[in-house]
Amino acid sequence: MSSKLPNSSNTSPKAAIHTNHAPEALGPYSQATQTGPWLFLSGQIPLLASGQLCPGGIREQTQQVLKNLQAILEAAGGTLDNIMQTTCYLCALSDFQAFNEVYAQHFNAPFPARATVEVKALPKNALVEISALACLV
């Protein structure tokens, strides 16, 4: 379910997007915000909708993160094909090849622009996090 975009009497140009098919935010942020056709998706870690960490290694966790992103996109009326750019955080760059194999199964050419970086730690001891920018046109 998504919030309606604000009308002209509202001073905020953004609307929050929310779905029960992805985990709740772990802090004071939205699953996504939308302004016009632009959808800004908060970083998703491999939590199940119940809030529990997805069991498994980098492949299973990457699959769950992409499932969460897809659920949020669907709540806004989009699909993974609407993603223009992602930022990917891995706790170990040694997981890059396995991560890339799963990631590639979810996107079609032309692929989104992307940055991938190694981080020391992620919330809930996740192995991967992905944030995205999508255009719903």
Summarize the structure in words:
The chain has helices spanning 58-75, 96-104, and strands at residues 15-17, 32-35, 38-44, 83-90, 113-118, 128-135. With 137 residues, it is of the alpha+beta class. The chain has a single domain, classed as RutC-like (60s Ribosomal Protein L30, Chain: A). Strand 4, helix 2 and strand 5 (113-118) form a beta-alpha-beta unit. Helix 1 (58-75) runs parallel beside helix 2. Residues 1-9 have low confidence and may be disordered.
What is the top-level CATH class? Alpha Beta
CATH architecture: 2-Layer Sandwich
Q: What is the oligomer described by this structure?
A: single chain
DSSP strand (E) fraction? 25-35%
| SSE ordering | EEEHEHEE
How many structural domains in the coordinates? Answer: 1
Low-pLDDT stretches are: 1-9
CATH superfamily: RutC-like
* Helix residue percentage: 10-25%
Q: Give me the number of helical elements.
A: 2
- Strands, total number: 6
> What's the Cα radius of gyration?
15 Å
Distance between the termini: 19 Å
In short:
The protein is an alpha+beta fold and 137 residues long. It has helices at 58-75, 96-104, and strands at residues 15-17, 32-35, 38-44, 83-90, 113-118, 128-135.
Write the layout of secondary structure elements.
Elements: E1 15-17, E2 32-35, E3 38-44, H1 58-75, E4 83-90, H2 96-104, E5 113-118, E6 128-135
Parallel strand pairs: 4-5
Antiparallel strand pairs: 1-2, 2-3, 3-6, 4-6
